[in-house]
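Internal QA ticket QA-208
Title: Verify multi-chain structure generation after dependency bump
Assignee: T.L.

Test input:
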Amino acid sequence: MTVAAIEAVDVSRTYELEGVSVSALRGVSLTVDQGEYVAVIGPSGSGKSTLMHLLGGLDRPSGGRLVIGGRDVAGLTAPELATLRNETIGFVFQAFHLLARTSAVDNVALPLVYRGVGARQRRERAAAMLGRVGLGHRLHHRPNQLSGGEQQRVAIARALVTEPAVLLADEPTGNLDTATGEAVLELLERLNAESGVALVMVTHDQEVAARARRRISVRDGLIQSDTRHDRPPSGGPGGPATLEHAPSAEPRSASGSGPGRPPGGPGGAAGATGRLPRAGGAAR
Amino acid sequence: MRVAEAWRVALDALRANRLRSLLTMLGVIIGVASVVILVAIGTGTKQQVEQQVEGLGSNLLLVVPGRLDVGTAPVVSPLDLTDADAVSRVVGDPGRVAVTVASGATARAGNRSDFTTVQGVLETTPSVFTRSLGRGRYLTGADVDTGRRVAVLGASVARSLFPDRDPLGQQVALAGVRFRVIGVFAPLGQSLGVDRDDEVHVPVTAAQRLWGTRRIDGIAVKAPDRERIDQLGERIVAELSRRHPDTEFSAVTQQQILGVLGDILGVLTGVLAAIAGISLLVGGVGVSNIMLVSVRERTREIGLRKAVGARPRDIGVQFLLEAVLLTSIGGLTGMALGVGTALLVDAFSPIPAAITWWSLALAFGVSAAVGIVFGVVPAQRAGRLDPVVALRAE
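Actual output:
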C-alpha cells in the first residue's frame, strides 16, 4: 500500500468579506492516491476552485485536516508551504500563466530556480521535458510565438519538470478550441499513465470529466458525488484506450469515499450530455 | 533562489520597461548629480579660498581693532603710523610690518573712469603679503616718507583705464588728485566672486593726505617663525592695548582666518548638499512609486512564481534588487553626469569645483540606500501577496 498523495479530512474554507463570513467549502473529505486520474466537476461558485487551491497548497483550510505529500499543511509556515508546492505539486492553469518575454525552456525551468538547481542542469531538464510534450523544436520560442495549444504544453512541461506527485490542472482546455483541447487532454492522460503522476483536473465540462476514471462532483461547498469507473465511458471522443491500463483500479477502491461502482453502459452517454450526475451520487 | 538568478530577473524586468525605468532613474540621476556638483562647487570654493589665504604669505599676523569673529560690527580704528612704529619695535624688524588705510575712490584717466579701492600702504607690502609686480616698480621708502603721489595699479584697474596704452608713466586721478603710475600688479584673479585685481596702492602718507586723516585701518606682521606666532601676537596686542586702553585689539593668524572661513564655507556646502539631498529623496519616492506599480502590474507573475515554489523572501528579494538596481544604475549615471558637469563648470566658468572621493562614495551609497529604503515596502507587499488572489489578478 502506498501513501496517499493528498489526504483531506473534513476540510472547510471560510472567507471573511467585509465582516461577513462566506463558506466556500463546508467539510470535504477525499484522498488522492498516487497515479490517480481524477476529474473535479461543478458549476461556478460550487467551491471547486477553492478545493483546487487547497489541494495544491496555495491556500490553507479554515478547518479540518489537509495532508499533502505526507505533510500536514496546518503546521507549515509560508516558506515551507512554498517548498512543499515546489516539490509535490505541478500546476496547469486555464490561462497558461507563462512568463512573457521568456523562452519556453526558461519558462519550464522556472520551478527548478526555486529548487536551487544550477542554470545548466535546469536547461537540460527543461529541454528534456519539452521534448516529452512534443516541443523539442520550440525551446527558444517565446509564448507570443507559440499557439495556444503549444503554450499549454509548455505549461504542462513546467508543471512536470519537478517530477511532482500530483498534477493539478484547472480547466486546462478552457482557453483552447476543441481539437487542440483534445490533444492537450491526451497529453495529460499519456503523462499520467507514463510517469505515474496523479492527475487532478478541475473542469465544468462533463465531456472532459467523463474521460477520468474517478469523478468528484462539487456543489455548494460539499462533495455531491465521488464515483469511479474502471474504463472511460464509450462516449468519450477518441479516448486513449491504449493508455488507460497503467494504474490498476484495485488500490484506489480502498481509499475513495464513494462506493466505486462500475459504470453502466447508458451512464456514459448521460455523462457526455452534461445533464445528469454519475451514478453513486450519495457519496458522503 | 540564487542571487545571480535574482539579479538576472531584476535586470530583465527593468529592460522590459526601458522608458519607465529610465524616467524613474532620472529622478535619482538628477539627485545624485546635483549632490556631486554642489558638493564639488562648495569644496572647490573652500579650496580656492584656502589657497588664497595661504597665498597671502606665510606666518602672517593681522592686527585689527575689535574682534575678528562672525557677526561682530567693525570698530573705528584708533591706530595711526606711530602705532605701526611701536609694533615694529616689538617685532624688531620694520621690514616685517605693513599697514593699510583703504577707501573706495573713483580712478580717472583721460575720459575713462573706474570705481576701485585705494589702499594706502608702506613699501613693505609686497614682502609681507606675497604680491608680485607685472610691470614697473613698487613704492619705495622715499615715496612713503615724502608722501609722493605715485600709484601701483591692480591688473583690472590698469586694463580698464588704459585698455590700449602702456599705463607706466601715465597720470591717473584718484578722488580728483593726480597720481603717476609707476607699476602694475601681476593678476591674482577672483575670490568668492570678488575681483582681487581691482585695487590701487599708493603711499600711506599720500592716502592720509587725500582723505584728510591720520588713521590707519590695520597692521599686518610677517612673523619670523611659525612656532612663536601666537606669542608675538599677544605681545603686539598688549603693546597696542597699552597705547589705546579704550580699544580691544585682536591679532589673527591665517590658521584662524582659515578656520572661520572654513566654518562658513562648510555650512554653505552642507546647505547645498542638503538641498541636493532633497531632490535625491524625491527621486527615491519616484522609485518607490514605480515599484508599487510594477508589483501591481506583475501580480499574476508573482502568483505563478509562488505557485511553482517561490517563497515570500524570494519574491521580496527579487523586487528589492529591482529597486536597488534602478537606483544604483541611476546613481552611477548621476555620478558620471555630476563629475562631467563639475569639470566643465571648473574649466569654463569662474566658479571653482573640485571632485572629492567622499562625495562620490556618499552619493552612490545614498542612492543605493534609497533603493533599499524605498524598495522595501513594495518588495514586502509583493512577498506577502496571497498566491490565490495573485493568480486571479487581471
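Spot checks passed. Residues 6-273 of chain A form a domain with the Rossmann fold fold (CATH 3.40.50.300).
Status: verified.
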